[in-house]
Amino acid sequence: MSTLALKTTTSPQKLLGVLTTGHLINDFYNVTLPFLLPTLIATFHLNFFQAGILAIATSLFSGLLQPVVGYAADRSGRRKAVILCGFLAFSLGLVAAGFATSYIMLVAAFFIFGLGKSTFHAQSTNFITRAFSTSKGRAMGIHGIGGSIGNFSAPIIVTSLIVAFTWQEALFLMAIPGVVMVIFLGVALPIHLGHQEEKPRLKIPRKLILLAINFGLILMFYEGFLVFLPTFLMEQGSSLSQAGFITAFMLFVGFLAQPVGGYIYDRLGGRYLFAISSLLAAVSLLLLTSGWDLPAILFIALVGASATATFPVALAMGSEIADGANVGLSVGMVFGVASMLASVTPAMTGYVADLFDMQTAFRLLTVLAVAAIGLSFFMPGKHN
Predict the structure, then answer these.
(1) Best exposed site among 22, 90, 188, 201 by fewest CB in 10 Å?
(2) Cα 125 to Cα 8: distance, rounded to the nearest angstrom
(3) Is 50 exceeded by the pLDDT of residue 8?
(4) What letters, b where the CB count within 10 A reaches 16 and e where it falls short, cover 188-200?
């Protein structure tokens, strides 16, 4: 473990704790839309394709912005300010959505909300991988625990708020944690890293592009599945609360899978982890939609665990591929390209579901996982 000092008295361990807390709230916001969709579909009389457009609004432009924001933060060193702006965008977007009276206003509100997704991961990864230079995978796996807690708490919290209040009141209440995080991280985060940083260069290695595309395929698969999972479960007879609980369980398993993925990366590298995870995700989803006489929740959990195990690994690999001055750009590139690719999947999944049914749409998602398996063998090996 590195003993890298920060410009404040923040130790690497404390920094990891602060950013893991921020990751919890950030990823809570990242998965709120699927549990809002059934209510928004009913309220605004949307078809599945229109519902998928809302997911695009939260992801497409934020994906384009991530490498740009990462590079700008590398040049200016203002990573803390970038993170704070992201949480503010989350809160403003939710408040705007609560006041929406038309579909266009709703799309615009979720566009603002989506801007928050362009800020956190690249900056937190930059802080953490510099502070833990010899154990990046383990540190990013712990960091991933915060994201997983945010993920699996979102279904329970969001569905409970919608049941207890109006959907508009639920959105206003959900905006509060973002404001709290602006205050908390404003006090707790150091302004800069504690050593002189090199000036970044616009340098994008071929293997970074390969990593971004491969992670993008997995994220496309995962987003298409996650966004419509509550809707799929309700079509199968579950209530909104039951669908939220099942999805929360899947995301809880992801809580366990992320540190395991980071541990494996430190020892074996990312190539085999990506291949095995993609294979397990594809097989699990096929079994889920093929009517096997086993509890569906088991296959759902396996889909979530296998996909989310790659999340901290993709970030760690991006920082490993980067030279010391380009971590923000590199991680922003990985997450940005992946987010842009994944942003179109919900609309595609919704379109296929409109033409056929949700089971068929889910089965077609396995093509993405199979493509990720093949591409995995061309990825960098251990600590390349």
Answers:
(1) 201
(2) 18
(3) no
(4) bbbeebeeebeeb
Q: Which residue range(s) make up the domain with 250?
A: 12-376
Total domains present in the chain: 1
Distance CA(358)–CA(353), nearest Å, equals 5
Q: Are 311 and 144 in contact (CB under 8 A)?
A: yes
- Place 196 in a pLDDT band, splitting at 50, 70 and 90: very low
46 Cβ neighbours under 8 A, 6+ residues apart: 40, 103
Q: How confident is the model at residue 262, as a pLDDT?
A: 79
Q: Residue 135 has which token pair?
A: 């154990």
Residue 123 forms part of a structural domain: yes
Determine the Cα–Cα distance for residues 168 and 174; give it in Å rounded to an integer: 10
Indicate whether 3 belongs to any domain.
Answer: no
String of b and e for 203-240 (b: at least 16 CB within 10 Å)? ebeeebebbbbbbbbbbbbbbbbbbbbbbbbeeeebeb
Alpha helices in 99-239 (DSSP H): 103-115, 120-131, 136-164, 167-174, 176-188, 206-235
Q: What is the pLDDT of residues 287-345, one digit of tens each?
A: 999 877 778 899 999 999 999 899 888 878 887 776 655 667 777 788 788 888 888 89
Separation of alpha carbons 31 and 312, rounded Å: 17
Listed residue (373, 372, 27, 348) closest to 216, CA to CA: 372
The CATH number of whichever domain residue 333 belongs to comes to 1.20.1250.20
Q: How confident is the model at residue 324, as a pLDDT?
A: 57
pLDDT of residue 383: 53
Reply yes or no on whether the pLDDT at 178 is more than 90: yes
Of 24 and 5, which is predicted with more confidence?
A: 24
- Domain presence at residue 383: no
Which whole number is the average pLDDT over 62-76?
A: 76
